[in-house]
Amino acid sequence: MVNILIVGSQGDYGLVGLAQRVGDAVVHYLVVGGDATGLERYGVSKAFIVQGVVDEQSLANAVLELARANNYALIISPINKFYRTAMPMVAQSLGAPLIMDVTDLKPSGDTFEVSFNGIGSRAQVTAGVKQPAILMAPPARFKPTEKPTSMSKETLQVKSVGQVKVVSTEEKARGGVRIEDAELIVSVGRGFKKKEDLQLAFDLAKVLGAEIGCSRPIAADLKWLSEDHWVGLSGHKVRPKLYMAIGISGQPQHLAGMMESRVVVVINNDPNAPFFKNCDYGVVEDLYKFVPALTNKLRELLKK
Amino acid sequence: MELIALVKLALDTGQLRVSGDKLDIENTPLKISDIDRNAVEAAVQIKEKVGGRVRAISVLKYGPVQKRVQEAEGLIREVLAMGADEAFLVADNALVNTDQLVTAKVIAAVIRKLGNFDLILAGEASIDGYTGQVGPRVAAELGIPVVTYARELRVDGNKLTIKRDLEEAVQTVEVTTPALVTVTREINVPRIPPLLQIRMAMKKPINKLSLADLGISLGSPMEVKGVSLVQVRRKGVIIKEGSVDDKVNKLIEALIQEGIITRG
């Protein structure tokens, strides 16, 4: 029987579902944010509860200490920038592999067979990994089965390393969009010359009942839209029925975020835009002429 | 300031080669991982401001090594033309198919061999693996602090002030050197070197190292068994003939055929 540690907030308990694929395992949970209530339902036998705010380095040290005491075969965490920073430090100190974006896991003798999305989400990779190993995955991908157990709780005081001093934190603006769940997406890129021109896409999206997506420069660089609109490898992954990309060239990092779309429409005046090689319907036309004409025609047709 | 830039020679994910449903890694061209160009640019800008030198380190991860070394040197020349002073390329058959644990150990070994350093810069992630783990791993290996996702970086003596781009917030932090910082694409616009710089870069040294030169031998805790490409078949219907209205009509017809919209 192996020991497994989940590191994450209480809401990341979906990851217990990944741990359960090992079969017979003792599951511990390091709760960063939350009080562990309800975790016993999924067979977590021990919860360590972190008090207060911790930085990545301090958390990494705490995980390392637990790993050395409990000899975990696997340590599992969600994927976000906090854990993307903390967990590699844990992995390096343990001499362990770290596999990102895990889709499946099965034990195979004293090693594990792990499947994951690799090469910028362009490939499904399978690898044999030795213990201990660090796995990272989106918690919502897995559904833990209920197997109630008695769980002990322990409060963990994380020692602050304090090498990196936080001076200030400024919340980002949010548009209140959940682009991941959108059925229809009209997505905008650098083909729009100024922020006001995005109105053309907003009008089209309104007629279609679509959400607005965008490429990296629009959100991260120009900040014309908040980052919850950003589609791509480091933005959001989407899988709508229709993905209409307007004025987006189609860099691999953007494509990786919308590959699972059912129908892809690309509108661009540059016939050599790489996106045309990855679309169902590609319109070679100036977006400033095409988009208003499309909106008008759709408005007539859909009687809106 | 002694600056080090970590430069990945990544698979060009825009030009992946396929054989059957398998990714043909050996025949896929390499390119400098885009975000590492930002790391080099950041390093060169600091050098231009406060003096010092920039040394670039690359670890060749894709075979066949014999064939790739020349390709790798060509790419590293671009980094030298951008303003790096010297480059170190670790190429060894034993590195092909190894994981990031090994990459970080190799990079740390090169850095120890170089001696003094103040600041190590790297991209937030490579464009091929995109796991972003090598930066923090190298920091852990060297026992120095790491600051990830820097979109602004100010150097003031041995103090660094950094704006970190997190999911929900921008965090401003301070750290003293030696440190490792990973940068995002937004930190700068990497320069495109003029011809003169490219010619001059031909004279700058690229030091080739093997694992034996570094005095290390390594085993990877991970063995890749299969890589199959996620292939999405798209129809690829290009609408380019006719007037704007013709094109609108053709697209709408297609969207109706696909069941995306229905006539009201």
Write the layout of secondary structure elements.
The complex is a heterodimer of chains A (about 300) and B (about 260).
Chain A: E1 2-8, H1 15-20, E2 25-32, E3 44-50, H2 56-70, E4 74-77, H3 81-94, E5 98-99, E6 102-108, E7 111-118, E8 123-129, E9 133-136, E10 152-156, E11 165-171, E12 184-188, H4 199-208, E13 211-214, H5 216-221, E14 242-246, H6 252-258, E15 263-268, E16 281-284, H7 287-302
Parallel strand pairs in A: 1-2, 1-4, 2-3, 3-10, 4-9, 5-9, 12-13, 12-14, 14-15, 15-16
Antiparallel strand pairs in A: 6-7, 7-8
Helix pairs in contact in A: 2-3, 4-7
Chain B: E1 2-6, E2 9-11, E3 18-19, E4 22-23, E5 30-32, H1 34-50, E6 53-59, H2 65-82, E7 86-90, H3 100-114, E8 119-123, H4 134-142, E9 146-156, E10 159-165, E11 169-176, E12 179-183, H5 195-201, E13 206-209, H6 211-214, E14 222-229, E15 237-239, H7 244-257
Parallel strand pairs in B: 1-6, 1-8, 6-7, 7-13, 8-12, 9-12
Antiparallel strand pairs in B: 2-5, 3-4, 9-10, 10-11
Helix pairs in contact in B: 2-5, 3-4
Structural class of chain A: alpha/beta
Number of helices of chain B: 7
| Proportion of residues in extended strands of chain A | 25-35%
Order of helices and strands of chain A: EHEEHEHEEEEEEEEHEHEHEEH
The helix-strand sequence of chain B is: EEEEEHEHEHEHEEEEHEHEEH
Helix-strand category of chain B: alpha/beta
Helix percentage of chain B: 25-40%
Low-confidence stretches of chain B: none
- Shape by Cα distribution of chain A: elongated
- Described by the principal axes of the CA atoms, the overall outline of chain B is globular
For the biggest β-sheet of chain A, the strand order reads: 5-9-4-1-2-3-10
Number of strands of chain A: 16
Largest β sheet strand count, sense and barrel closure of chain A: 7 strands, parallel
Oligomer: heterodimer
* Adjacency order of strands in the biggest sheet of chain B: 11-10-9-12-8-1-6-7-13
Biggest interface and which pair forms it? A-B, 91 and 79 residues
> What is the typical, i.e. mean, pLDDT of chain B?
94
- Rounded mean pLDDT score of chain A: 94
Give the termini separation of chain A: 62 Å
